[in-house]
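During the reporting period the student researcher (J.K.) took over the structure-prediction task from the postdoctoral fellow and processed the backlog of single-chain submissions. One of the processed entries is reproduced below for the supervisory committee.
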Amino acid sequence: MTNLKKMTGGAAMVAAAKANGIDTVFGLPGAQTYPIFDALHGSNEIKTVISRHEQGAAYMAYGYSKATGKPGAFSVVPGPGVLNATAALCTAAGGNVPLLCMTGQVPSQFLGSGRGHLHELSDQAGTLRTIIKYADRIDNPVNTFKQMNKAFRVMQSDRPGPVSLEMCWDTMAQEWEVEVEAGNSHIDLPVIDEDSLVDAADLIANSKNIMIMSGSGAQHASQEVRELTSLLGATATSLRSGRGVVSEDSDWGVSSAAAMDLWESTDLLIGIGSRLEMQYMRWLSMMEYYDKPPENFPKLIRIDVDPKEMIRLKPHVAVVADAKEGVSALIEKVIKRGFKLGDLDRVKSAKVKARNNIEEIQPQLAYLDVIRDVLPRDGFFVEELCQAGFTSYYGFPIYEPRTYVSSGYQGTLGYGFPTALGVKVAMPDRAVVSIIGDGGFLFAMSEMATAVQHNIGLITIIFNNSSFGNVRRDQQERFNSNLIGADLVNPNFLKISEAFGVDGYSISQPVELKPILTKAIENNQPAIIEVKIERGTEVSPWKYIHKTVIAPS
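J.K. obtained the following structure tokens:
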């Protein structure tokens, strides 16, 4: 029997989002989306967080999804509002993050007219389709639940990613008899080819020094990956988005710096939900594209939900599967086939060596050590594109899944602060620390007002070196010190904090950080900690990120 309920188009979008598990919406209301926010105003089951910029709303939804593994949602006006949010949508597409954008459109009679109505784009959905996984328009609100359910199915099936649904201004405001349905319950995943598992088990049986590389696609499969790692005695590592899948204080979990040392004696690499950027780009070439392993590289097994990945980088064995299902099935085959246990002393030695080596990356490492000492094991750490952020790739141990939040390969400058706000909204009872440079922080500084208005207890550590550190170093080393756009004039961050009503602190030595950070975590309210660093004094972190460790044949 059809379940019809009278509601506006905007209310139907909100109800359908709720049916699909959305409990928080970030956004900024405007003329075309008033009905969405009117429905949110009347909802006791969906929390609404109002940002000060559309990009902030989208990044917050990104952070929410990164922290929880669930879809994040935001709503902004069409045209300029959607375009302001596209950097976050681009980041979500790169990071395989399920994200829902709910937006508006010009009145239905103006569609495609080019008349120049408020916020009009020639083809908004078409523009978004070049960036995200799926975009559509709801023309008949009666079918809102059907179209929203389709969007959620596409969003979460195979390789997850962001989607967008729009509705015309007049259509969204009118009341309709809407067909109310349950949320989507179908997630499409590939069927595993048994022969590929047999081939993978054979490669493992004939290998001794195995390395497992996890990416964002393995975050939900942490238990299974940890089991495989312990079973084989395999080195387990990651670069950014896969951090925490295997704890770095476990026997076999290692930082990327330690993995670099172990790479030359590795005879098999197992990539799980990872593009393998570290081994095949960072350690091989960022300028020359390799679509298969060079002859003198380790054998390669890939477990990935996306069959296109097996074409982009062709492995010796391709297991097209969701990480959780694929690793579980592989464990069964490995136990039956047999294997050689890895050498724990080899791994322990590499850990000690790597830690001793990276001590030179100062002062970043000293500050990261303090943060790690104070931040609870399950606390969240949101990195940014700053010298401390790059150092954290290998110099900040991660112990639990999802607790290291990154922009992945998009390298989105300025994403970190609003993203961390979304993480904290999702996890209000867990400590969340955002580290960011002075340049990146100014991208979304206005969201300090959001933190205060919604009492989001995020702790933000600004590493203030009065520059874009990478730009400055590159121009010095590669362009005869022709500095342009590298050195920055900044505001007084303590006065800015005071103006926003945020707890503010300023330090210049690592020893000063521990009591202040401890206090800030206990207070659980918005806080800014400025770390003053003399311009140009930070040691480059790049030698442990980008290095050719085996020359291609």
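The committee noted the following: The two ends are 67 Å apart (CA to CA).
J.K. will present the remaining backlog at the next meeting.
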